[in-house]
Amino acid sequence: MKKNLGLVHVYTGNGKGKTTWALGIAMRALGQGLKVSIIQFMKGGAYTGEYISAKNFLSNVNFMQFGKQCVKEQKQMKLQGIDSDAPLFDYIREDIDCGDCRDCFVNDDEQKKFVKDAFNLSKKVITSGDYNLVVLDEINVALNLGFLKLEDVLSLIKNKFEKTELVLTGRNAPKELFEVADYASDIQMIKHPFNKGVLARRGIEY
């Protein structure tokens, strides 16, 4: 089975489902006994369902997030007397109304540093040969924002361990990634409840 691995997937587009698609592949791989590494770019909300599931219920997966944490989440932890370095899935989470707070979505120098850290780890993970499948979630967004250079991402793909399957997700993937990919899907939105004022829902969007 493992001898057939080593292909490259790119999932992009403005529709919902890119991360979900990648996580589905990861779940399938884990079910077949493969070792998986998931690195999320520009996502630091460790309260997300996929992160909680991976940490609490799954083995054989290395799941890392690099992005800003939710300031309201941190406040909740403080009120519950939990150390800020504690895993967020270890405490009782209450629903958070983001309101007009968009701190975790601000793409500033702090976010750029998180991207750099994620990319440096990605280079180590993808060349190590320790993992059968590596998911680089939202790396396309970091690339589109100019936080990463296209030539560096292409080099990452070229120099990966030969038998490591690689998945890259995120909007606005450049055509150059399609050219080196074995799978390339552009997921387009037809309808989304956000356009009716329905905000992200716990357990469905995060």
Which features does this protein show?
single chain; 206 residues; alpha/beta; Rossmann fold; 6-stranded parallel beta sheet; 6 strands; 35% helix; 15% strand; globular
What is this structure's SSE topology?
Layout: E1 8-12, H1 18-31, E2 36-41, H2 49-57, E3 61-66, H3 71-79, H4 109-128, E4 133-137, H5 139-144, H6 150-158, E5 165-169, H7 175-180, E6 183-186
Parallel strand pairs: 1-5, 1-6, 2-3, 2-4, 4-5
Text of the CATH class = Alpha Beta
Query: In angstroms, what separates the terminal alpha carbons?
Result: 32 Å
Low-confidence stretches: none
Task: Determine the number of helices (DSSP H or I, runs of at least 4 residues).
Answer: 7
**Judging by the overall fold, what is the CATH architecture?**
3-Layer(aba) Sandwich
Across the major sheet, the strand order is 3-2-4-5-1-6
Number of strands: 6
Describe what you observe in this structure.
The protein is an alpha/beta fold and 206 residues long. The chain has one domain (2-69, 107-196): P-loop containing nucleotide triphosphate hydrolases (Rossmann fold, 3-Layer(aba) Sandwich), CATH 3.40.50.300. It has seven helices and six strands. The chain has helices at 18-31, 49-57, 71-79, 109-128, 139-144, 150-158, 175-180, and strands at residues 8-12, 36-41, 61-66, 133-137, 165-169, 183-186.
Task: Describe the structure concisely.
The protein is α/β, with parallel strands linked by helices and 206 residues long. It has a single domain (2-69, 107-196), classed as P-loop containing nucleotide triphosphate hydrolases (Rossmann fold, 3-Layer(aba) Sandwich), CATH 3.40.50.
